[in-house]
Amino acid sequence: xxxHHSGHYHCRGQVSTAVPPWRExxxxxxxxxxxxxxxxxxxxxxPGGQVALGDRLVLSCAVATGTGPLSFTxxxxxxxxPLGTGPHLELQHVGDNDSGHYHCRVSNGDSVAExxxxxxxxx
Length: 123
Known about the structure:
Cell_adhesion_signaling, three-stranded antiparallel β-sheet
């Protein structure tokens, strides 16, 4: 189901022995709601968020429940400025300034949920 499927529905059928032969049911109202986003989790490659200076780090975000469309933003520390969007954040050549606590935030337009922060350590 999608949000645009909300509306009023009825069925119509033919009863061959009736006059008139067509009959309609009562109207039924269907309202489609979004499911709130919850269970946001985050993991890293390499595992544990420990990465060697100059190597690549990939952070991935997943949602246990929630209907979309979903939007993802990535944050480090207490910063509200997003580092990226989408379910993955890739840092090609990590530097010392990339260490810190990262989390992803997911929204479906009606609700927002965040992952537990992951501490990334550049070795």
